[in-house]
Amino acid sequence: MFFKDKHCPTCKGSGTQVFTPLKPEERKALGTNRTDLWRCTAAGCRWYQPWDHRAGGGRLPEELQNPGADASQ
Prior knowledge:
It is a single chain. By secondary structure, the chain is mainly beta. It has one helix at about 25-30, and strands at about 5, 15-20, 35-40, 45-50, 60. Helix content is about 10%, strand content about 25%. The radius of gyration is 12 Å and the shape is globular. The termini are far apart. About 20% of the residues are buried.
């Protein structure tokens, strides 16, 4: 079974966040054509990772931050 919610290592709390596949413009900003990368959809988060594990993940550029960003993060 496939679940869209995963633990995000950069979001606070012990719950899970919804992840969605990277959009073409996000993949372009990273300089990759990989289609197995997903990003956290929490407000202000820029974390992305391969779907099956956190290793190989990172942060998207600031201009691709999700709406509702907290300026202190």
